[in-house]
Amino acid sequence: MLVDRVALRDFRNYERADVALAPKLTIVTGSNGAGKTNLLEAVYFGLTARSCRTRNEREMVRHGCRVTHVAVDATDDSGTHRFEVGFEPGEAKRISIDGAAQTSAPIAQVQRPPVSVFVPERLELIKGAPALRRSHVDQLIAAIWPARAETRASYSRALAQRNALIARIRAGRSSPSSLDPWDQELSRAGFALMEDRAAALDEVVPLFAQRATEIGLPGAAAIRYRPRSQAASAGDLLTELEQRRDGDLDRGFSGHGPHRDDLMLELAGRSLRSYGSQGQQRAALLALLFAERDVLVEAGRPPLMLLDDVMSELDAKRRSQLVGLIRSGGQALLTATEFAHVPAEAAADVALVNVTDGVADGAQGLRAA
Ligand SMILES: Nc1ncnc2c1ncn2[C@@H]1O[C@H](COP(=O)(O)OP(=O)(O)OP(=O)(O)O)[C@@H](O)[C@H]1O
Ligand SMILES: [Mg+2]
Questions:
Q1: What predicted TM-score, i.e. pTM, was given to this entire model?
Q2: From CA 138, how far away is CA 132, in angstroms rounded?
């Protein structure tokens, strides 16, 4: 699916904007504070019904306004589809696809174009807690194989049920043997989830190493999947759960299984989370996102890449390598304070958008040669 257009109303510093995206590259320029990142966030919000910058979603509503609204048009073989999100703090979001109301946020991968985002806040993926990396890899699984999103959902349901039951047992309202069916279900979905995570990473890891070298990371970059469980089958995981049952009942929650997995991103054998410089962490995140894009291109689901200010901290050689990567597949939206930061080879067949104080110009179909 190609994203053709985004229209916003009362979103951050925009009263209204209507911006056409090019099939390959759209470059959004403007000075600090003009609204470049806001525009990129709006595209993400329109497609997913989530912010890629904040958990406090009311920040997205323009000061002094009650409601914000974003519509994104995207085209595939079946025609053009419209994704709309209306949001008023304190109320449920109004989400629709082609006019049909959707009940749940975020919008499921299977229903929309995949989107991959680089904003400074996303460095948390490397620096932050394991839960962010787990949920990232699970999103990737859903983007590559939309049907497998169900595995994570069933695991989460079984885990919640098992934890609720543990609380009942501790309160003397149920017997420990009532855990049996939930352990069965948890081990079945849990082992499937571990297999999906390993399979997704098998695809991404070699490309990650390659992209990291291209972007200029010194030394070999690697990702290691660190599952909590060593199980080689669902039966093994069931045995592990049974062995830990008394401990879980003591603690009051399930302490074992893929909800405790982590991924280690490494450079030259050392953890990027603990030892990586800011620049290395940025480069690693970019390498990861491009590796994932390549896997998704291969799967026939190329993502829209939203790349916020990725050029500014790179030298000229790395900038042109990055542009080569951007150009090598799929669709991208790139922000930069100065057009001069974007290497000349990027400039063919792009849409240029200039933003000043929440007004987007040149947006409607303007193409630079
Ligand atoms: N809810 C809001 N209502 C009105 N203005 C907002 C809102 N949220 C943010 N802004 C304004 O948006 C502007 C920042 O926009 P944005 O982050 O998109 O800038 P930018 O162009 O990416 O700048 P930089 O180059 O510094 O990253 C700020 O002036 C900020 O005050
Ligand atoms: Mg910005």
A1: 0.93
A2: 10
